[in-house]
Amino acid sequence: MADCFDGNVLAAKSFARFGVTHMFGVVGIPVTGLANRAVQLGIRFIAFHNEQSAGYAASAYGYLTGQPGLLLTVSGPGCVHGLAGLSNAMINTWPMVMISGSSDQKDFGRGDFQELDQIEAVQPFSKFSVKAKDIKEIPDCVARVLDHAVSGRPGGCYLDLPTDVLHQTITESEAEKLLTEVEKVRVFEATKAPPSSEIEKAVIVLRKAERPLIVFGKGAAYGRAEGELKKLVERTGIPFLPTPMGKGLVNDDHELAASAARSLAICKCDVALVVGARLNWLLHFGESPKWDKDVKFILVDVSEEEIKLRKPHLGLAGDAKKVLEMINKEIKDDPFCLGKSHPWVEAISKKVKDNVSKMEAQLAKDVVPFNFLTPMRIIRDAILRVGSPAPVVVSEGANTMDVGRSVLVQTEPRTRLDAGTWGTMGVGLGYCIAAAVANPERLVVAVEGDSGFGFSAMEVETLVRYKLPVVVIVFNNGGVYGGDRRSPEEVSGPFKDDPAPTSFVPGAAYHTLIEAFGGKGYLVGTPDELKSALSESFSARKPAVINVIIDPFAGAESGRMQHKN
């Protein structure tokens, strides 16, 4: 009798054959066999405690590698938990595939174990969803979700594998035939580029501008556009402004960096070349009063729909790297450069110097009990001392993330992961694990608020289990924004003696959590203690948690978003 294997093996073979090397997830009925077979076939499976964190890891892995990040979940509740990661991938436009087991098809609608119409459940968060209704459909379904995840504007896709399909069998020769057929018909999308006439128009607008600005975001980072961006900045002398996750594409310390003069740069520029960044809330929708009402936007985006939505002066639909390459080529034939003495460059430069010197004066003070600035400066200096390859910084929290964005310096591309377009809290440990797996040569340093850390703190066990070089620094100020911020009038009612909705247990010993699993914990409250903990943990490159005790009244409620709360 010919060798036979089941749907678990065929799914694992399909993923391995089509280039998948990593998978994140939580196993159980009916997908444990699929995870085990994937490992057998050379796919590294990172097992989490919670599908939410595993999903965040898969989404970040997609961003960091340019390949779809895979999340494997059980049926029903597992699929629902996984929606956090799938939706995060969709909003941030990162390639990801969620694979969930599902009910036996013949029992669907009768109250089967963990029954849910999962195709319907994922619909708002998935650009493409498919159910393999028979074992012979598995290779084609796998190829389609992988291809859709990276085509056009990247995003999340969903593959549904019913229990009965996973248990069906097929001969080895039949499986090989199916895999070969699918490989033959896979079509990979060509790099998208606008017509050269549009590039010429864009360069004319830039050339005539009196106060041009280059803005770039994580879309440019995803597109590996750093080389062309740096060339453009240095060839034209135009100041640049990265969005938070665009930081590091061009060194934050570059003389044309306008981050420390952000308000001036966006308010006064007359032309803004926006590359791989959407004119959403992070960029004030491109509207006045933050921007000049007559500013001309040149929008570079892989999505024509995005360009139509924003109605810029000029839209260049295409891959960020390719479009910048074309712009650089056009400029090279007839070069222009603003020069350091250009009034606009001088104005930006002066504002940057003024603001940096004010910030450095604040950072120079050793404030104990710690505010946010003192430990952040010590962390910044420790990270910079690591050199290259630079650590990946993962940042989440309200005050912790806001202060970190201003203080921490990114010198290399794709080395900052934060709450992103959706402002998602709880991404921290998942992102750390994805970064450590995607970039094994880099140290990963998480700078977390205690509230942000709490969402996924149990995954410190995952760090220890896989021996990942991740140091998690928790800014512990006793709660969301920093403990009880209520006025006396607000402390009333029958439950007035309960802790405030923003409060946690004061002085929580977060560092002992990782010690329970064999990792290293540090409790610090002074500059010397923090310097010592950072030096030791960075050198060891082993899982660690540094519990930094912060003055509970040091931060602001809602960080920089008070107007929304």
From TrEMBL:
Catalytic activity: an (R)-2-hydroxy-long-chain-fatty acyl-CoA = a long-chain fatty aldehyde + formyl-CoA; a 2-hydroxy-3-methyl fatty acyl-CoA = a 2-methyl-branched fatty aldehyde + formyl-CoA
GO MF: 2-hydroxyacyl-CoA lyase activity; magnesium ion binding; thiamine pyrophosphate binding
Keyword Cell cycle: no
Top EC class, one word: lyase
Domain Thiamine pyrophosphate enzyme central: 199-326
GO terms for biological process, alphabetical: fatty acid alpha-oxidation
All residue ranges annotated as the Thiamine pyrophosphate enzyme TPP-binding domain in the record: 400-548
Listed EC numbers: 4.1.2.63
Cofactor(s) needed by this chain: thiamine diphosphate; Mg(2+)
Domain Thiamine pyrophosphate enzyme N-terminal TPP-binding, residue spans: 13-120
Highest taxon, organism lineage: Eukaryota
Alphabetical UniProt keywords: Lyase, Magnesium, Metal-binding, Thiamine pyrophosphate
Subunit organization: Homotetramer.
Function of the molecule: Catalyzes a carbon-carbon cleavage reaction; cleaves a 2-hydroxy-3-methylacyl-CoA into formyl-CoA and a 2-methyl-branched fatty aldehyde.
Family: Belongs to the TPP enzyme family.
Record protein name field: 2-hydroxyacyl-CoA lyase
Source taxonomy: Eukaryota, Viridiplantae, Streptophyta, Embryophyta, Tracheophyta
